[in-house]
Amino acid sequence: MLEYHLDVAALAATSFSCSPLVETVMSLRPRRSPRIFPEHRPYLIKTAAAFSQLDGDLLLALVTRRRNIPDYLTPRPMSPAPSFEEGLAALRQTPAQAVAEQIRLAYAGETMPAVLADGLQDPVPLAARIADAIEGYWHSCVQPYWAVMAGVLESEIGYRARQLTAGGARELFAGLDDRLSWADGVLSLNLFGMSGRVTLRGEGLTLVPSLFARGAICMMTPGPHDFIVYPARGRGTAWTQQPGAAADAALAELLGPTRARLLALLETPASTTELARVLRVTPSAISQHLAALHASRLVTRGRHGRSVLYIRSALGTELVTDQPGPQLPRDSALGIEQ
Q: Does this model's pTM top 0.70?
């Protein structure tokens, strides 16, 4: 059991971040172990041709058989919404010797692929090659889908922020993942092979949702600058042909495609901004559609702090029962695989 002890200042400073670099590196996990991540099969298919043109052997070698990743590849995000370039710059600044040490640590007890074992004979060019490979991978296989991916992640963060406002740290941490528990100022992470105590003070803890985590995970060498990656709700929704495109044809014909998609999404409460991000429609257009659905008694709404949240009414639920439309992230944890 790994324990994070948070004083009042650390708890107040605890925050969320949506990191393009962390998500880029994490997205290599389903490529390394596709059977364990069946929900990402559409993404792997869509990007297969682009990935075949990259330094694939090296990229896949960055994830071990046990799905460990060298810590330096996922530096702690230093802001709520860092750019990919900021994260990559931090990665490139890692000393070559630290790169070598962390690669060896990740592969402890496993056979290291030749592409890494040979490269470690001179870690300076290896570190540069790895950074170049990740940059190319981002541009070819992640950036084209980042708007949709970020929409799911930002919706997740918005939901967690409301949890924190409504129920405090206890409710927030209790709902993140089954591996996490909170009591008496201590956040416990039950992760196989990890144990120890980390004291966090003013810097706080950063929580990073990911589409590619099957359970909460931390860095291989936890410390005051650690952060926790946890599974975002609705991680498979990013790979639909279009957000909401699977809404039933009859319902779309009745309401119009956008309103049918909104109704399918509103199984859980969401704000206009969150819905606009997921559907890639302007907030003003979403507001107009929601007003029509509300006037038709298909959705209800209520104020939560400064936000107005919408959710399907009983009548709206009847219309979408058994429909295969997409859903916003649900409240349950999404697995316990490391």
A: yes
